[in-house]
Amino acid sequence: MPRPRLNVPAPQLSAGQASYVLDCLIADRRISASEVSRYVSDMHREISDLESRLQTLRAHAGAAAPAAGTSSTTTGKRRGRPPGSGKRRGRPPGSGKKAAAAPSMAAAPAAAAPAGPAKRRRRARITPEQLASRQLQGRYLGLIRQIPASRRAQYQKIAKDSGREAAINAMKSAVGR
Fold first, then answer.
1. What is the dihedral of CA 13, 17, 21, 26, to 10 degrees?
2. What is the rounded (10 degree) CA torsion for 25, 26, 32, 37?
3. Which residues of the chain are modeled with pLDDT < 70?
């Protein structure tokens, strides 16, 4: 069982240190270059969202004070994550321009450093039935590799007709386990 993570504040890194750590994470395959590009594009999107929100607030500051019952939806901005900003498969938008991503990171290294480490993706849980099936398949594969190629077809036929358990028992007796 994994140990729970402590809420440790992110270390304050210089631009050079942040660049070195990022290079090491990419080299160790803990984070991919496409994830870095996605974070950079998310940073630009967040900046533009904040600028549009400020513009809206400035426009409303000149108008009369809103009524107490109005919500943030009247300003056109919803609370929470914007639609379509969830995890997507494939390359993030703008990731093809590798040369354009590097200057933007160099231009704002202080903004990128305190963001902290990227969250690792959680492995999907499997059901007990899936676990049992995978374990059974592992036993089957471990035994079938010990059988000569000329005799494997008969055990594959047993597995297909009677099930992997019967094939495993037959192979165990043939191998001498």
1. 130
2. 90
3. 1-3, 5, 63-78, 81-116
**Around 160, how many Cα atoms within 13 Å sit in the side-chain half-sphere?**
6
In the chain, the percentage of residues whose pLDDT exceeds 70 is 67
- Gap between the Cα atoms of 168 and 138, Å rounded: 10
Residue 2: the pLDDT is 66
**């803990």: which residue's tokens?**
30
